[in-house]
Amino acid sequence: MDFGGSKARLASHAIFAEESKHAYAHTCNASQLEALTLACTLRLTLIQGPPGTGKTTTAVQIVAALVQYGLVDLPMLVTADSNTAVDNLVKGIGKRGLSVVRVGRPESIREDVKQYALDGQWKLLKKAEVVCATCIGASGTTLDKIRFATVLIDECTQAAESAALVPMARGCQQAILIGDQCQLPPT
Fold it and tell me: Name one GO molecular function term (predicted).
C-alpha cells in the first residue's frame, strides 16, 4: 500500500498502529477502535452502524488521528449531505483543537459553529487542517484550487450517489464513508 511514498509517512503509520491501541482505548469501544485503525490505514473504508452507536464521534476521532499523526496530506475534506450533520462534525473537530474551516452559505451554518465559518477570510482556508462542507457545497468555487487527498463523508447513506461523488472529485486518494443503510434514504 502506498501512503504517499515518503519514509516519514510510513513511519507515522507504524507509530499510529502501535500507539492507537492505547491512545484511543479510553474513548472507543472495540468496534470503534477497529474502525478508527482501519480508516487510518486503508485507502477505502466503509463504516456502518445503527443509530446511537457513535458513528459521528468515531468520524471525529478518525479525523483527529489522521491529522495529529500526520497520516494525510492537508487539508482533508470532511462532508455530509446535510448542514446539520456537517455542523455536528465541525463542532466535534473544533473541540479536538484542530484547525477547521466550515464552508457554506452563512444562513445555513448553526450559530454555535459560526466561529469556524470561512466568511470571506481566505487566509483561514489556506491554513486549515480540515475543511468541512456539505457534499454539494464541496463543488463550490471557493474550493476550486484545493485538492483533497483524503475525504470523509459522514451519513453517506443519506446522500444520493451523485452527491457523494462530488467531494471525491477533488483529488481523493483515500475515502472514508460512514453511515447506516437502514436510516433515511437519500431525498
Answer: helicase activity
Q: Residue 94: what pLDDT?
A: 97
What number of other Cβ atoms are within 10 A of residue 145's Cβ? Answer: 8
Distance (Å, whole) CA 60 – CA 179? 14
For residue 135, which of 160, 110, 116 has the smallest C-alpha distance? Answer: 160
| Distance between CA atoms of residues 145 and 57, nearest Å | 30
Q: pLDDT digits over 73-114, tens only?
A: 999 999 999 999 999 999 999 999 999 999 999 999 999 999
Mean pLDDT lowest for which of 19-28, 67-76, 171-180? 19-28
Cell of 15: 507509530
Mean pLDDT of the chain: 89
How far apart are the two ends of the chain, measured CA to CA in Å?
A: 36
Which residues fall within 8 angstroms of residue 24, CB to CB, at 6 or more apart? 32, 33, 36, 61, 65
Residues 6+ apart with CB under 8 A from 11: none
Query: CA nearest 85: which of 121, 65, 59?
Result: 59
Beta bridge partners of 30: none
Looking at residues 136-158, what average pLDDT do you find?
A: 94
Domains parsed from the chain with CATH numbers: 7-179 (3.40.50.300)
Task: List strand residue ranges (DSSP E) for 13-73, in order.
Answer: 44-48
